[in-house]
Amino acid sequence: MSEEEMDQNNVNALYNKGAALLDQGNDQEAIEYFDRVLSIEPNATDALYNKGAALLDQGKNEEAIEYFDRVLAIEPNATDAADERGVALIPPEKSQYMQISRRRKRRRSRRGWR
């Protein structure tokens, strides 16, 4: 197995672990895994999006917007990132119910890496 293949397998494993943690509501731990993915693949839009979603779940709206903006810079037609960016613009104290009801609908499925 080449080094590139090993890195790709590692990225996939890290991403899948982060996604599972996000599904379980372990936002902070999920962020750590998405950060590890992004250290290898800085433009991995799925990891960027899901890190933004985890930050949004934590009420860190301004930070979340930064990650949704990065997705949109790479994928200008990413309506999921644009929608979540819009949610992040609502102050956390006014959007608590909406965030809870949308939480599990938010995670982006892995689309592949560029």
Describe this structure in words.
The protein has 114 residues and is mainly α. The protein has one domain (3-105): Tetratricopeptide repeat domain (Serine Threonine Protein Phosphatase 5, Tetratricopeptide repeat). It is 73% helix and 0% strand. The protein has helices spanning 3-23, 27-40, 45-57, 61-74, 79-88, 92-102. Helix 1 (3-23) packs antiparallel against helix 2 (27-40), helix 2 (27-40) packs antiparallel against helix 3 and helix 4 (61-74) runs antiparallel to helix 5. The longest helix is centred in the N-terminal third of the chain and has 21 residues, at 3-23. It starts with a helix and ends in a 12-residue tail after the last helix.
Helix and strand topology:
Elements: H1 3-23, H2 27-40, H3 45-57, H4 61-74, H5 79-88, H6 92-102
Helix pairs in contact: 1-2, 2-3, 3-4, 4-5
CATH class: Mainly Alpha
String of helices and strands:
HHHHHH
Class computed from helices, strands and strand pairing: mainly alpha
Q: Using the coordinates shown, work out and report the CATH topology.
A: Serine Threonine Protein Phosphatase 5, Tetratricopeptide repeat
Indicate the percent of residues in helices.
over 70%
Q: Please tell me how large the radius of gyration is.
A: 14 Å
The total domain count is 1
Number of helices: 6
| Span between termini | 20 Å
> How would a textbook summarize the main sheet?
none
CATH 4th-level superfamily: Tetratricopeptide repeat domain
